[in-house]
Amino acid sequence: MKKKGIFALSILCALGVFAQKQQVILDRVIAVVGGSSILHSEVSEYAHALVAQRRQEGYTSDRDPMNEALEAMMTQKLLYNQAQIDSVQINSGEISSRVESQIKQMITDEGSILQLEAKHHMPVFNIRENLRHRYEEQAYASMMRNEVISKVSVTPGEVERYYKSIPKDSLPIIADQYVYAQITRFPKSMTEAKQRTREQLLDMRERVITGKARFETLARMYSQDPGTAMRGGEMEPSTLNSLDQAFADALEQLKPGQISEVVESQFGFHIIQLIDQRGELYHFRHILLLPIYTTSELASVARELDSIAQLIRADSITFEKAALKFSDDAASKMNGGIVSNHDFLERTYADAKMTVTKFLREDFAQFRALDDYNALLTLKPGEISASFLTQDMIGNQLGKIVKLVEVIPTHPASLESDYLRIEEMALQEKQTRAFTDWLSKKIDGMYVYIDPEFRNGEFENKHWVK
């Protein structure tokens, strides 16, 4: 599928590139979209980053990188302006977390705050605000695009027509796919590990209540929620029905400033502090901890799994029966241990019809199962791995053995064996058409100025030049 430049703007930060407008003496505005201007230095910066990324990926474009960068930035500016008009909401807490993470990395790279400020010729709070504006604009643009395409769907007939429209020699190639089964085990000492976690949180709660520590400080130091730890555990105001039930029940009982008892949710253990409540929106902080096991506890579960594997290899029990009898994974144990992405879809509120049991290499990375992939690479179909320690999607430690059921070789896509992947491609193509049509209408209705020097560029959307 063709990559869209608009949302690749984030590679600027990923590459550690940061605009230094002070040292661009002859900078000028080369485009205006709505109420947003685009500077020559910004386009040049993005063009260089785009070329570097493409070179790393082994991909080249026939387009002038300056023109490609300019169109991508104009598209983002239009989406940002339309998002303001439509009052689109973004997660500002997530933005703050990304900014603080980026600032922390930049300080580490430069060695100190003073060196960072010297490099960019501005105080760190200005660097932080520039980053915040950049991330917010990207978030608004992304959310606006998602709103445009979110209602697009495809029917089975459209999927079939899409597939038949592809020349046989141009059919997408589906890389090797893996079908595998698993048996997972949490350490028998889970009860003890949970108790240790509860006691750690109770100690933190006591320290806050007695004034020995601030909730925010403890969250930054100890919370295992990567999305909120850097913000002192603070989350965006949320409704109760958008939260885990146990978490919501505890939050509902609090008054501003109060701290909950230890709460166990599907994500781990928490203490929660209510900041304020406005109508149905609860503004709060939390500290998340996951049960941590000792080395000997983890070694014990590994030995247990190796014993189960030996029984299977000796034909004393089938893998399917062993999964049903011993596995702690409720989803796969009822299906002979066969692994699917159902849990991932459920947690991300994705469509359950996209459930698959055939995984590409990139699929393992998506649902945090690279340890599974590395184990499978050592196996032949029918073989069982040695036990290995890993984590589930939310970071809980566990042991696992896997069985390679089948490797489906690389092949041209077909409706019979790859329907869901073809459906996804058909949907992406339809979404792209819908977005292009929407974009053209918005360009026609929004103020757009392009410097004469850049008007003759090769724009994908011809509506830009009016």
Quick rundown:
The protein has 17 helices and 11 strands. The protein is an alpha+beta fold.
Q: What is the CATH level 1 assignment of the largest domain?
A: Mainly Alpha
Strand order of the largest sheet: 2-1-11
Query: How is the quaternary structure best described?
Result: single chain
The largest sheet is:
3 strands, antiparallel
**In which range does the helix fraction lie?**
40-55%
Share in β-strands: 5-15%
Mean pLDDT across the residues is 89
Low-pLDDT ranges: 1-25
Distance between the termini: 29 Å
CATH topology tier name of the largest domain: Triger factor/SurA peptide-binding fold
Domains, number? 3
The CATH architecture of the largest domain would be: Orthogonal Bundle
Shape: globular
N-to-C SSE string, H for helix and E for strand: HEEHHHHHHEEHHHEEEHHHHHHEEEHE
What does this structure look like?
- By secondary structure, the chain is an alpha+beta fold.
- The protein folds into three domains: 6-153 and 427-464, Triger factor/SurA peptide-binding fold (Orthogonal Bundle), CATH 1.10.4030; 177-189 and 293-409, Chitinase A, domain 3 (Roll), CATH 3.10.50; 190-289, Chitinase A, domain 3 (Roll), CATH 3.10.50.40.
- Helices cover 48% and strands 14% of the residues.
- The protein contains 17 helices and eleven strands.
- The strands form four sheets. Strands 2-1-11 form a three-stranded antiparallel sheet. Strands 4-9-8 form a three-stranded antiparallel sheet.
- The protein starts with 10 loop residues before the first helix and ends in a 16-residue tail after the last strand.
- Residues 1-25 have low confidence and may be disordered.
